[in-house]
């Protein structure tokens, strides 16, 4: 077994603290990665605190992982020792169903998607995430990472990046489209960068006037204060797409009404409470409401390659791992621009 | 002015009764149609009874109209006297906005869509519908009707037909797709006919075992009783599309769960109450919820031409106009296969 160090929570009320544990040996299809950086996703906090159902403790969170490969198994052809690599939200799946065959491992038909942490692998072992110095993973779920980009800013691409890239690609967002991005956080700031890069006119929709300068710096063409009824009114039937990154309850009908005929509201954050949707919000203009969850492995690779080619990374604040609990408190106050990334050299 | 006869309600509690009124003169862009048949749409009942807001009384309902042209204005090039013609839900719009220019007059950007009855035309006059012997209409909103089809069964195509045809075309439903049709009524039976004609595998989803034989006769390949949990369970992630024709409140999440990854639920009927949608119903499988309202004039013509080519009409029960009030009571009990059509020769 491989000795690993990390930070773990041991119950839903515990702070994260140093923990030593074992990773499995490097199997024939596995790679071993020395983790360099790991992003902090809001979902880490939900899971550490058992807010999405009971967690498997001890829990080592983290699914925005970049590092360097230090060993490969006998069957590994995809990677060589010394290469940079990334791991996102998944580390396994059945690998032979229709969804897996079509690169949608997150929707494995056999319900065998194995999440990077707080999940059970196919052998029954518990998965541990990226707040750690090492990780062993089946090569299929490991991504190539370019050395052209600042690695620290690459880590959040593995979740926040693919989560926004995937629906923008599915719906073919690009030149000539007007896109509204609702909420400027980890997901929102990536949605702005991608939509701008794809050629769309991008409007940041925010409740906070203080975000205007940053939205513009990230590339947004317009900024609309959603607390101002006049500004909101000017957006009646304005957008082709809205990327809704807000996971707190909010009025979906208000934003659906900003869509043109055939417009699409894509939720990448969702509250636990059911959405209340007026039939007319959809019927008037044949509008579309959808949601999108991460993206499959081939598309994640496509996204990383696109980012390398277009010099796109996440805006981050680098922290030492001892500050992870403070970082959590700041995430909950939306006090981060726009993703905390842990420097695992500090472990 | 042109003297017309029809059936009208004079208050929201009145039965429909004979009424004589005037239509406008045939203007330069108008055609005059002698109405032969008019379908009864459930929305006629809602409007006659002021269930969708206060109606403009007297109200002459009817927006599934076929007849023969008996006069044309000086500018009319699209029609000749003696030709068959149809009118659906709209009789006017601004005719120069982006939506109108793109054949989506039902979503006129200037909010000048004029409905066939219970609406005000651009000159302020009230519109009266097809429970009448004559109608005058701008040629742009008049459709060519083939003499190859049984005219009685063509009338409901002008609303029930286009309402189901349009979203099936928008979403490119065809060979290789699995389509569920929820509810077997006026809309549902047309959805089955079109989806089958487009090459999809069609499953009728119904609460009533008595509908199985008819669903199969209409072309449905499968029938699933939605009251049977075992049968419902077999549909987990089964469909590419669901056409939801039910306007009574029901559990949308149950049907969303029947959709594959990227599957689409298209509502062509909607309850007045807001829909309660669990975020996960959309997020799992990146599913899509949408609604669709009738269709524009060019697409309505395309649908009529398609029906003429493929011998598609609505299944109807022909009634005398004196029986319209009885027909309304039967519509409310879903006791019609599948559309009442009024023979205006009986007026």
Automatic annotation (TrEMBL), chains A, B:
Names of required cofactors: Zn(2+)
Keyword Manganese tagged: no
Pfam families per UniProt: ADH_N, ADH_zinc_N
Name used for this protein in its record: Uncharacterized zinc-type alcohol dehydrogenase-like protein
Source organism of this protein record: Niabella drilacis (strain DSM 25811 / CCM 8410 / CCUG 62505 / LMG 26954 / E90)
PROSITE patterns: ADH_ZINC (PS00059)
Residue ranges constituting the Alcohol dehydrogenase-like C-terminal domain according to the UniProt record: 186-307
InterPro entries linked to this entry: ADH-like_C, ADH-like_N, ADH_Zn_CS, CAD-like, GroES-like_sf, NAD(P)-bd_dom_sf
One MF term in the entry's GO annotations: alcohol dehydrogenase (NADP+) activity
Domain Alcohol dehydrogenase-like N-terminal: 27-146
